[in-house]
Amino acid sequence: MRLLFLTALGAMALAPTSQPAGLLAEEPTFAGVRVLYGPGEDFGSVDARLIGEARHSIDMAAYVLTDRSLMSALGRAAMRGAKVRIYLDGEDRGRGASAIEEIADAPNIEVRRKGRSRDLMHLKSYQVDGRVLRSGSANFSISGEVYQDNDLIVIESPQAAARFRDAFERLWSRPDNQPVGLR
């Protein structure tokens, strides 16, 4: 019986696997993926670690950005020499606006807001150094990271980070964007 089992297991291991079709065929075959669910999992420490590892660049698209510890982490990344670009929804001008304006004036940080329109920029994602993508439903706020039912997905994949960066470049280059800060 054991010989039969090992033979079957060996045959399965050597059998060719079918390749995904359609859109999945374009995705990387191997990627490190970590999925977290809140409340209860420490989203803030995941963001602090990812941003703390940045050496070259961070591109962030944030529907809401009010978490001051996250903004401080972005500021520290910029002080280490990482180029930080933050793209915000155009309608969220009240909560955390002063902190965003302060960080926008720091060296190596550039912040833009989407021009006002009826359509939201609803992403909650960023890429670090072209190697890792953080995405999910959690806003970059204390309530989104600590109290609400949200997910956070970290994908360690240059291909996933590049796909996000391409989308980010399209958002960033919109002609009606509004710069934030003195620049």
SSE inventory with pairings:
Blueprint: H1 2-14, E1 32-38, H2 43-52, E2 57-62, H3 68-79, E3 83-88, H4 97-104, E4 109-113, E5 124-128, E6 132-136, H5 142-147, E7 150-156, H6 158-172, E8 178-180
Parallel strand pairs: 2-3, 3-4
Antiparallel strand pairs: 1-7, 2-5, 4-8, 5-6, 6-7
Helix pairs in contact: 2-3
Question: What is this structure, in a nutshell?
Answer:
With 183 residues, this protein is an alpha+beta fold. The protein is 35% helix and 24% strand. α2 (43-52) packs parallel to α3.
Write structural notes for this entry.
It is built from six helices and eight strands. By secondary structure, it is an alpha+beta fold. It has a domain at 43-130 and 161-180: Endonuclease, Chain A. It has an eight-stranded mixed beta sheet with strand order 1-7-6-5-2-3-4-8, with helices on both faces. Strand 5 (124-128) and strand 6 (132-136) form a beta hairpin. Helix 2 (43-52) packs parallel to helix 3. The longest helix is centred in the C-terminal third of the chain and has 15 residues, at 158-172. It is globular and about 70 Å long. The relative contact order is 0.20. The mean pLDDT is 85.
Let me know the average pLDDT.
Answer: 85
What radius of gyration results from the CA coordinates?
Answer: 20 Å
| Quaternary structure type | single chain
Considering the protein shown, what is the CATH homologous superfamily of the domain at 43-130 and 161-180?
Answer: Endonuclease Chain A
The helix/strand series, from N terminus to C terminus, equals HEHEHEHEEEHEHE
> What is the count of DSSP helices, taking H or I runs of 4+ residues?
6
Based on secondary structure, the structural category is alpha+beta
